[in-house]
UniProtKB/TrEMBL annotation:
The protein's name: Uncharacterized protein
Stored InterPro entries: At5g01610-like, DUF538
Length: 155
């Protein structure tokens, strides 16, 4: 899903803020309110952020793309200049602008949620599905590549 264009019409329905300090405060507060870790979005130089309470839509704009390594779990995550999502209790869905590196491949995250019952660990079923698809495709390519080599040797 591509990121939603933040229009003036959307802003009329939203609570929105400008400046890094205020947006850092508001984004951490929102994450805490929906039961997610406050450090989930370690953004820098946030220009603008907003939240439409009736739909749960949220957006954050930062100066430039950043990468952050979550040392405890050994994950490198990339955050685009614009991030959009819908938030609800224990879950971020329809996420845009966030990728994680798996096996030298950047995988787009579209959903982040907490385990239920709570274990305190973050899971992303969409990420696991995408990784499975990528690994399946790579395996198929490797098998196909081996078949090509075998056919070339026989010719």
């Amino acid at each position: 899903m591509s990121s939603l264009i933040i229009t003036e019409e959307l802003k009329q329905k939203a609570e929105y803020y400008y400046g890094d300090e205020k947006c850092q405060e508001k984004s951490k507060f929102l994450l805490q309110e929906v039961g997610l870790p406050r450090g989930l979005l370690p953004l820098k130089d946030i220009i603008e952020c907003g939240y439409v309470e009736e739909t749960g839509f949220v957006w954050l704009k930062q100066q430039k793309k950043i990468e952050h390594c979550f040392e405890k779990i050994g994950k490198l995550v990339s955050y685009a200049p614009e991030i959009t999502a819908y938030v609800e209790k224990g879950k971020i869905r329809e996420l845009t602008g966030v990728k994680t590196k798996e096996l030298l491949i950047w995988i787009t995250l579209t959903e982040i949620s907490l385990d239920d019952p709570p274990t305190g660990k973050l899971v992303s079923m969409e990420e696991f599905r995408q990784i499975g698809e990528v690994l399946g495709s790579l395996k198929a390519l490797m098998v196909f590549k081996d078949e090509i080599r075998i056919n070339q040797r026989q010719a």
